[in-house]
Amino acid sequence: MQARTIIRKEWLTQEELDEIRIRESEEQGREEELTGNVSVEVIPAGVLDRIYHGQRRQTDYTEIMDEISDLQRLPEEQQELVKEIRTTRERLQMMREKLPSIRHIDKRKIMIEVKKINDVIEHVPIDNITELNDTFYACAAMVTRKLAKNWKQKEEQPWKRRLKTKVHEIQQDLSRVIEAKNRKYNDRLRRKIEKKFNIRHKGYQLVIEELKQRLVAMAAKIKRYEDRVKQYQQNRLFENNQKRFYEEIQNGEKNESEIPDDEESKNFWKGIWGQATEHDHDAPWIRRVQQQIQGRQQEEIELTEEKLKRTLVNLPNWKAPGPDAVQGFWIKNLTNLHSKLAHYLNECLETAHTPCWMTTGRTVLIQKDRSKGRAAGNYRPITCLPIIWKLLTAMMAGEIYRHLEDNDLIGEEQKGCRAGYKGTKDHLLLDKVILKDCKQRKNGLAMGWID
Question: Which structural domain, as residue segments, surrounds residue 208?
C-alpha cells in the first residue's frame, strides 16, 4: 500500500525509484552469491544514475524513506507544494531565463506566497550547493509566475491618465460646439448642445473661447506636473550619481547606448586581461610585512548561519542577478534554507572548490561618453555575478577585515575600502589643507598618490 501511494502521488522522481530498485537488486545479488546462486539482472533503459551537472549524487536508501515518512505527515496541500517545487526545479535545471519583475507588486502578497513555500521547503531534498541554488530559482519562478500572470505594469501615472482623460473630454466638447455652430447636426442635437453649454446666453464664440482656454490651462497643468516629477528625479540622481546627472544635463535625455564593435572589443580587452603578468614574490617589502605580522596569523574561518544572517542584512533585494537569475530577495526571505546555505558555503571554503556557475558572470558594457562614439575603450564593463558567490566573498571579507582591525594591521594611510572611512573626501580635504598651508608659507612640496 505504501509503495502504491508513493508512486501515485509522485513523492519520488523516476530517477529515485530507479535508484531504489538498483539498490534492492544489488542486495539481492549479494544474498544469492552467499548461497552460491548467481543471477544477472538486466537493468532497464532509463536513468540509472542521478546525474547532476556532471557529478553522481549518492542518496542513502534510509534517508529517502525518512523523507517519505516526513512528507506523509504534512497536509495534502503542503505535499502538493513540495511536489511542485521538486518538479519545477528539475524542469528548470537547464533552462534559466530572466524572471519578470515583481518589485512593484504589493509586498504583502509576495510574502504570503513566500511563507507557504518557506513552511515546506525543508522537506525538499538538497544534496549540494548547486541543487540549493536551483531550489532558490524554482521557488522564485513559482511565486513570480503566479503573481505576475494577471499583473501589468502601468505605463502612465494615475494623475497623468486622469488629466489626459479630461483633455480628451474637453476636445470632444469643443468639436461638438464647432459642429453645432456650423449647423452640421440636426435641430434636436443642436438644442441639446446649446442647453448644455448655455450657448443662447453666452453665444457660440464665447463658449468656443472658454473651451480653448480650458484646454490651454489643462496642458499647462500637465506640463507643470511633469516638470515637478522631472525635478524630483534629477534631485535624486544628483544625490546618487552626480556624474550621470551632469551627462544627462549636457547631452539631453538618456538614449540607448551605441553597441561597440564585437571584434574590436575582444581585441581591446584581450590586451588587458588576456596576458598573464608575473610579479616579484620575493620583493623586500613583502618580507618586511611578513616579519611585522609574525605571530598574528588568522585563525581558520568558519562560516556560520549567524554570520550569514548578518551579511544578508546588507544584501539588496532586487539588484540585477548573475546568469543564475536568482535575486537577493529570495535568498533573504526563504529563511528555512539559511542553515543549508551556511553549511554548503562552509564546505566550499574547506574544500577550496566551487562549482563553475558560482564564478561565471554576465558582463554588460556601459558607454562612458556618448561624444566618443563606439570606441572599445569608451565602455566600462559591469559584471553581475551570482548572489551566492557574493555572499561567500562578503562573509570571507568580513572575517579578514575583522582580523586586520583587531590586530591593527591596516596602515593609517589607507583610507579606501575601510568601514567608517570616506576615502575620497578625506584625501581631498587633506590635499586641500596641505596645498593651502604650503602656499601660505611659500614652501616647496612634492606629493605622490597611490591608487
Answer: 158-251
